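Lecture 7, part 2: worked example. A protein chain together with zinc ion.
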Amino acid sequence: MESTAPPLLNVEDRLAGIGGEIHDLVARLYPICRSITGEGVRETLRILAEQIQLEMSEVPTGTNVFDWTVPNEWNIRDAYVKNASGERIIDFRRSNLHVVNYSVPVRARLSLMELKEHLHTAPEHPDWIPYRTSYYSEDWGFCLSHNQLLELTEGEYEVCIDSTLEPGHLSYGECYLEGQTADEMLIYCHVCHPSLCNDNLSSIALAVFLARELSRRALRYSYRFLFAPGAIGSITWLRLNEAGLSKIKHGLVLSCLGDAGRSTYKKSRSGDTEIDRAATHMLQHSGRDYEIVDFSPWGHDERQFCSPGFDLPVGCLMRTPHGQFPEYHTSADNLDLVKPGFLADSFAKCLAIIDILESNRRYLNQNPKGEPHLGKRGLYRSIGGGPGGKERELAMLWVLNLADGRHDLLAIAERSGLGYGAIKYAADVLREHDLLREMEVPG
Ligand code: ZN
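Predicted complex, written out as C-alpha cells:
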C-alpha cells in the first residue's frame, strides 16, 4: 500500500509535455479567420476532429432560438485598402484582425476623410491592431494600429472587402464521452474569435487535450465538450438541447487559460454548487496565487447557462479575466502571450477539479460508536510514521467522524482544512478495511 496521498495538481510524467502540445495546437489554429458563423469555424472544428471524436451540427440561418435568431452566415476571402500607388496598406492577408468581423462586402474609392469613418484603432496601445465586430448591425470597417492611422496621407483610397453575408448555417461541435452514469459535466469554449490566442484558442486547445485525456479513463460522469460561437452558440445549443439539460450536474466555461496571470474562478449563479466548491478547494490548495469571483451577468457563455430560466451549475475558469489584460481583443493577444507552462498549469487545474468531482462521495462510518481501533487493523503501521504521518492519521479521524451520510468527501476536506487528496486517500484506506460504506446515490 502506498503511504502518501497523491498531490492534487498531479500532472503525470506522461503529460509533462502537455503545455507544448497545447501551444502547438493554438499555433495551428491561430491563422484561421473565425467568426460566429462561416468556414473559419468549420475549418477549426475539422482540425479539432482530427484529435477527438467531434459531432458537428449545422443550424440554418433564421432559426429562432429563444429571443435570438441564427444570423446570416459570414465568409470572407480577401480585404484591403490600397493607396493611390496601388499598394495594399491595410491587408487582410497580413492579419485577419484588420477587417471588422462580419463586415458586409464593399468596393469603393474614398477620400481619407470618408475612409476614416470606417477605421478603428486603439490609441492607448498605438502599435496594436484592435479586434472589432459588427455581428448584429450591417456595417463594414477596418482596424489598424493607431501609429499607422497617423501616417495616412490625403488622397484617394481603394477599399475592397470581398465577403459574403448570406443565408447559411451556424456551426458547432460536440465531443461526448460516455461515463458510468448519464449525469453530465459540460465543458464549453467559444470558437468565434479570429487570430487571438489567449481569448480563446488557449481554452479550445486545452479542452481538446482534456477530452483526449478523459477518453482514456474510466469515468463516473459523462462529459460533453462543446465548441460553439460565443452567446449565439450557447443560446442555440440550449434551445436545441433543452430537454436534456437536467443531466448537467457540473459545468465549466473555459476562457483565457494561457497568460501569465493567476488562475481565476468565477462562481455559478447560485455560488454554492459542487463545481464551485471543487474549484475553490482546488485553488485554495494549489499552492499558487488565485482569485475567486462571484457570478455576474457579464463575461462569457456562463451568462447563458446561468440565465434564470436555466440556472445551471456552470462556473468559469480563467487566468486573467477577459478585458483585464492589456492585450485583450488586440493583435498583441498572440502566440507569445500564451506560454506552454501556463497552459500546462491550467490543464492540471482542470484535471484536479475533475478528479474531485469524479471521486467525491458520501460514506457511512461502519463503526460510529467510539473511534474504531485503528491499531488493531494495522492502520497505524501502514500509514503512520515518517513525515506526514500525523496528517494522514488526522485525515482518517476526520473522515471517520464526518462520514455520517451528510458530508461528502469534499465537505470533510473543507471542514478539516486538509487537502482533498489526503481525505480521499484516507477514505480509500478505511473502505479497504470495511470501516466505510458508500451511501446509495438516490435516483
Ligand atoms: Zn473575446
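The chain has three domains: 11-70+170-359, 73-166, 363-438. The two ends are 34 Å apart (CA to CA). Keep this in mind for problem set question 3.
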